[in-house]
User: Fold this.
Amino acid sequence: MLSLLTNTAIQIVLVLALWVVGQLCLQRLGRSGPAGRRDVPLALAVGVVVWSALLFALAALGLYRASVVAPLTAAAALFAAIRWLQQRRSTGRASRASSTSSAGDFRGTPDGEPRKALARLRRGASCLLLAAIWLVLAALWIQAHRPDVAHDAGVYHLRIPERLLAAGGFHEEPWNVYFHWPHAVQLVWGQALALGRHEGTNLLHWAFTVALLVAVARSVAAGRAATGPSGGEAAAATGAHRVAGVFAAILVLANPVVLFEARIPYVDLAYALLLFAAFLELERGLSAAAGGSDSGSGTAASFPRSSALLLGILLAGVATVKLNGFVGVAALLAVAVATRVRRHPPDLTATLLRIAVPIALLLGAWLAKSWWLTGNPVYPLLWEQFGGANWSAELADQHRQWNRSIGMGREPIDYLLLPWRLLTEAGLGYERFDGELTPLWWLGLPLALLACLRDPLARRAASVALLFFAGWALSSQQLRLLIPALPLVALAAGRGAALLLAERRLSLLAAPLALAATALLLADGWVYLRQAPRLAGDLVRGGAALREQVVPSWHEWVAEATPPDSLVLLLGTNRSYGVEREVAADSFFEASQISALFAAATDADEAAAVARGAGITHLLWTAPAQRFPYPPALVALAGERLASPACTVAADESAALLVVDC
Assistant:
């Protein structure tokens, strides 16, 4: 029980710390009103960007240590709690008092009773959808408390901040390619590690998922203001948009690839939150400019400076969240420019400069860091132009071929069939995109198309998603990398659903829509719902024991039986989070740096000499290593050391820790 409470407390501290920094930034940009205070998803998104910039500065100065990061995070959380209590005291219950029941708008109308019935139907549909969402989110929240570490988290999502905290900041890490890519969110994960619990990173990513769903639902529900009805029609539109908003949130959550990531510390849902927040800020700016336009001349008013700066901050976060962040930035900026150019704005250049400055500053810092450490700003990409240690033209070609092998082909016909295959054939394994989408898209995509025919906002959202999809299709077609586009398509689909449900003749569709969405969400999330009760019991009874059970035995061997300056070569695994030594491991098994290092060796003695030359002191041979095509000389070296008791530090059925020089 103590472990569960500790994890939850860390989650609250992290969310508060991000929220308060984001809200202060919004306040400086003129978003200090009640609406700005209620926009928690936007505040979280801005908080991630600002914190990542602060943590980057600490890492550059050698101050990225638990002794610095933890107190800063705790102090921000304490300030956030005080600020939140003050805001609650000042606002009181004014917002609740101002809200009215939608049924009340129908009193006194000639057809009030039928309208009341429709209102009850829509309210019931909304409640059903919300109940399903929160049930699945609760199961995912319990899953997020699991102490075991997901594969990629063990390779780099958690390994990067762990190494940074140990070293105090940026340093040479020659074997981990991911270490040199932009990893702004991983710096934020380091806040949880500094507080002592890696489960906090799971729970923070879960919180980002909740914030994203809230933002999607609200953005659809806000569309009722554009319909312009009054009285009973206004209430009907409100109810329709409310149902459609929750439906759009389910369109995002119900995807198995999203359900999988919502409970672990990957970064694609953080990416999605940042990109979606940037799109909403673009819409705010366009709306403000349209409101001040000169209809007689056809010239748009100026894009608000605060919106341009905030959009730049959010896109800076998108650009630095991971190496493919430029795809989201390019997609959104292309739509923004195309939208503004049609109105002949007087300030297009100035607006683009305001947006570009934060992006250039933050992304430029990351690229400069990589250049400083490797000589290549985008290491290991463009190796032929810039070079870089522990990489080669052959490895670059292998990496390129591996990325192109993901999916179902790269011929023109394959690109044409790609949407169909994503909906019908996606599944586990790189040959099937390594992920799944929900069948609910068979309903969501036609609704998105309907909205695009009638709603400019939906067209812009779909356009950004389509451009992102094109960039994804031309690069690595791992389905999880497509997650940032899903909320934008869901927004368009939600607005399409709202258009249908606002029509009185079609309003009864709210019931079957809610039932279908609920059924599919529960079906897609069933694996987590089924596990939740027993997992919750295990966490309450023995969370600490669970943490000990998931740590591989060889972690203890390395910690206790190797000198602090050891370099351990990992064979058959590259998951090194929790290892208290520097390791050498493949970043990509498909482009093996280890195989390239030992390729020229002809026997065990030469392999040992190569290892000594690279500073490798120990080998960790794991059971899966037998399936990897390592060079014969390296396999012979491991075999000789395994056969010698004097060279074997420790061994069991899963792994053996071996000494190179013995």
Q: What stands out?
A: The chain has two domains: 2-93+142-527, 553-659. Residues 94-111, 225-232 have pLDDT under 50 and may be disordered. The longest strand covers residues 567-571. The chain is about 65% helix and 5% strand.
